[in-house]
Amino acid sequence: MAIMGKQDKIFEEGNLSGLPFTFNQEVTEVFEDMIDRSVPGYKTSLGLIALNAKKHYQPNSNSYDIGCSLGASSLSILRGAIDAQIIAIDNSKAMIKECEKRYNKLNSIEFVHEDIMDSELKEASFVVINYVIQFLNLEQRTSLLNKTYKALLPGGALILSEKIHHKNKFESKRIFYTHHKFKSSQGYSDLEISGKRDSLEGILLTELEQDHIERAQAVGFKTSEIILSNLNFRTFKFTK
Ligand code: GEK
Fold first, then answer.
1. CA of 81 to the centre of ligand 1 (A)
2. Residues lining ligand 1, Cβ inside 6 A
3. What is the pTM of this model?
4. Which of 32, 79, 81, 168 could be stapled to 50 by a disulfide with Cβ–Cβ 3.0 to 4.6 Å?
5. pLDDT tens sequence across 161-218
């Protein structure tokens, strides 16, 4: 089901309405274009979600799409596991409203407008947190992972995608410039790129690849695997 919104022009010259960054109506309208042009490997991550849903979803259990935005990960779960019962959660009212409008005939996804820190997760076999915990503070990240681990059934899996940084500052700088070039190649001007970076300052907080693995292991996950590595973005799979 390919539904594309408007082109992202939020950070074009003279338009400062994107400061500071929030997932408001304006961002919702351009979200698909924005994430696809800013996150290298985003579409591949969706394909991997479908593959892993097929492998890990257990009949009559729940699947969660945490920080669902416009439901792309939920649709990928359904592509892999057609019988999945999905609970898709986001604290952006504009995103959830748009999902309800688009998918009102799809009974297998329940869209919930809620802060994920308040959500009760249970009886899950497959959980997706695709590019979301970067917006939470460190304490919340641990608490969400812990809650996810406890909600998972034996054999269940968590797919977690995140933007990361590197320990070595030269490596970090090199990847930073390559990511800048990637966004230029997607048609963003230097001004738009730096405008978005400024608006995300202090809102999107990255960690090291190893930090994510150690956190997952500390809450109890049995296996950790990097299933996608693209510039400064990673997709991890953790199983119980
Ligand atoms: C995708 N997963 O297309 N509670 C609930 N939602 C939250 C919270 C929170 N505390 N904090 C942020 N969000 C999607 C893409 S986007 C990624 C996810 C990005 C939500 C926020 O409202 C937004 O919709 C989403 O997390 C992040 O596969 O924009 O880089």
1. 22
2. 23, 35, 67-69, 72-73, 89-92, 95, 115-117, 130-132, 135-136
3. 0.91
4. 79
5. 999 999 888 888 888 888 888 888 888 877 777 777 766 776 778 999 999 999 999 9
